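Recap quiz, item 2
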Amino acid sequence: MGIASEALKNFKGFNLKNLPEVEPVSPGHRACQGCGEVLALRQAMKALGTNVVMCSATGCMEIITSPFPQSAWRVPWIHVAFENAAAVVSGAESAYKAMNRKGIINSPDTVFVGYGGDGATADIGMQALSGALERGHNFIYMCFDNEAYMNTGIQRSSSTPYGAATTTSPAGKKSIGQSTWKKNMPEIAVAHGTPYVATCSPAFPIDLMNKVKKASLVPGPAYLHIYSPCPTGWRCGIEESVEMARLAVQSKVFPLFEVIDGQYFLSRKVAKPKPVSEYFKPQRRFRHLTETEVAKIQARTDADYEKLVAKCVMEAKTKEKPEQEMSIRLDGA
Amino acid sequence: MAKETGFMSWKKLNFGIAITNPGNAAELKTGDWRSMRPETNKEKCTKCAQCYIYCPDMVYSKDAEGYYIQNYYYCKGCGICAHECPVDAITMIQEVD
């Protein structure tokens, strides 16, 4: 049994009847109307409670919570540059560890959280995050993936999906918008041997809160990839942002899974998948796509999902019959 | 007024421009952003807490009877609550003034 599954043995989840009342992010923040990112942040912070240290990369969630002279944070919070949120949170974690050892403070249960948008995670902060995951600090990294640099005016990032129109990948006669496929950040985190990796979506709040809580219980690094709809950048209705997050899961564009000690678990099996065109339709960033392009994206989405499901099935099989496999291996030897 | 808008004179800032009151953004009035106002029909409401957990602006809170009520000081009028309500108890109403 690995360290993550050991720590999560007696885990009890949240439910809608006993939601925590605590709001570490105060109301009155300046997020756009219908922001899915601050909604995800709010749900995550509700699950974590107040004994946390937050390190924020530059991005929407830094801008909207801390315009001077006001701050929406009721917990310790530091804003650092785009690239080094993971480096700073690992430093804070080490400092607390040393101070606990020397008896200067007594807070062994403090949770350390670094977070950033998809630009701060997949593009600019990639090497700091990779280093922090490799060193194995006891922290959570949350990536709020809204699929472009929304804060500075909808520029493309490596997390922007194929075909999406942004201000730096505009759609036109000779361009279909973003011409590369979305970078698979959760798989990169898994490849580091991270004990706990999960993808979550604010449309499934209990699932999100459970995963955040699990990440805080794991003694070691945890990476959470949180899908964050952005009505401003995606050009969809402000009341539809939760609907978009739900459609992304139902159309297999953003499957929900968790990886505990390298073992894949599908959180939500998509039994009756919706076509990706249904997810694309309310968003103006995909409006220019022709039917052949949509078919191409559909094929790629299906293939990616099949790949993921195959990993989950394979893990489940080896989990079921470990003795048998062992005997085969022994026979072979 | 300074608290509601976030604008204030530099003479009123703390020494070292430190923010000494964590979470003081709660004083900011974001309610004047909205053009539509959500209203709950308590006869239809099943107290399912969907509006509470899907609200990005922490508008909803539980009252003594267990209903979730809006705090219009913060509500930006995005309409997620009305869109997500499973029994259509919440309707968006045009602000008149």
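The radius of gyration of chain A is 20 Å.
Residues 20-325 of chain A form a domain with the Rossmann fold fold (CATH 3.40.50.970).
End of item.
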